[in-house]
Specification:
29% of the residues lie in helices and 16% in strands. The strands form two sheets. Strands 3-5-4-6-7 form a five-stranded mixed beta sheet. The chain is globular, with a radius of gyration of 16 Å. It contains seven helices and seven strands. Helix 5 links the parallel strand 6 and strand 7. The C terminus is likely disordered. The chain has a single domain, classed as Rossmann fold. The protein has 188 residues and is an alpha/beta fold.
C-alpha cells in the first residue's frame, strides 16, 4: 500500500511507503475549512471521515469527495441543507486507509441504511463504485485531452455545485420503497 501523507505529518512513514502530493488548489482559490463548523482534519488519518452532517435529522444522502472537489460537495451540501435536505459530507482522501479501519468505524462514516450516495471525482471514477453502492452515482471524468482554465473545464464537465445539487435531487427523487441497502462493509 502506498500511503499518501501531507508534508510535515508524522506517523506511519516507517511502516509503509508514502508520497508527498501537491495539487492545483492555489489556482482554484479553494476555501479554508472552518473547523468550528467542520470536524477536525485529524480524521484524514483514517482515510475518510465525516466532515459534517447538515440538517436536523438523519442524513438522506451522503456526498463524498477528495481533494479540491470537497469544496464542491460542501457548497452543494449547504445549499441542499437550506432546502431541507439532510446531508452528510464525507472527505475521502484514501480508500486504502479507510479500508484498513475497523468495520465499526466504516459503518459510522458510511451507514448501510443511507444508500443514496454521490461521489465527486475530477478524474476517473474507477474504484468509487464500492463506496457509492448500487443506489449511488458518480460525477467523474472518464476521458482526457481537454485543455482550458480549470474553471472553464469544471463548468463544461459538470463539476459545479449546481450539478452536484441537481444530481443529488435526482437520486433523492428516485426514492422507491424497494431501494437496496448498501452491502455490509467488510469486517476486516
Amino acid at each position: 500500500m502506498l500511503l499518501t501523507k501531507k508534508p510535515g505529518s508524522s506517523g506511519t512513514a516507517a511502516q509503509s511507503p508514502f508520497v508527498h502530493s501537491l495539487q492545483r488548489g492555489l489556482a482554484q482559490a479553494l476555501p479554508t475549512m472552518d473547523r468550528s463548523v467542520f470536524n477536525p482534519a485529524i480524521g484524514l488519518q483514517k482515510g475518510a471521515y465525516i466532515l459534517a452532517d447538515i440538517g436536523d435529522g438523519k442524513p438522506q444522502i451522503i456526498l463524498m469527495a477528495s481533494g479540491s472537489e470537497v469544496a464542491l460537495i460542501v457548497e452543494a451540501g449547504f445549499k441542499l441543507g437550506a432546502e431541507g435536505i439532510n446531508v452528510r459530507l464525507v472527505s475521502f482522501p484514501s480508500w486504502e486507509l479507510f479500508e484498513a479501519q475497523p468495520a465499526s468505524y466504516k459503518k459510522e462514516v458510511l451507514p448501510k441504511d443511507i444508500p443514496v450516495r454521490l461521489a465527486v471525482e475530477a478524474g476517473v471514477g474507477q474504484g468509487w463504485e464500492k463506496w457509492v453502492g448500487d443506489h449511488g452515482k458518480l460525477i467523474c471524468l472518464e476521458h482526457y485531452g481537454a485543455s482550458a482554465p480549470a474553471k472553464t473545464l469544471f463548468e463544461k464537465f459538470g463539476f459545479t455545485a449546481e450539478n452536484v445539487i441537481n444530481t443529488a435531487m435526482t437520486l433523492l427523487g428516485d426514492d422507491d420503497q424497494d431501494v437496496p441497502l448498501i452491502e455490509e462493509l467488510d469486517e476486516a
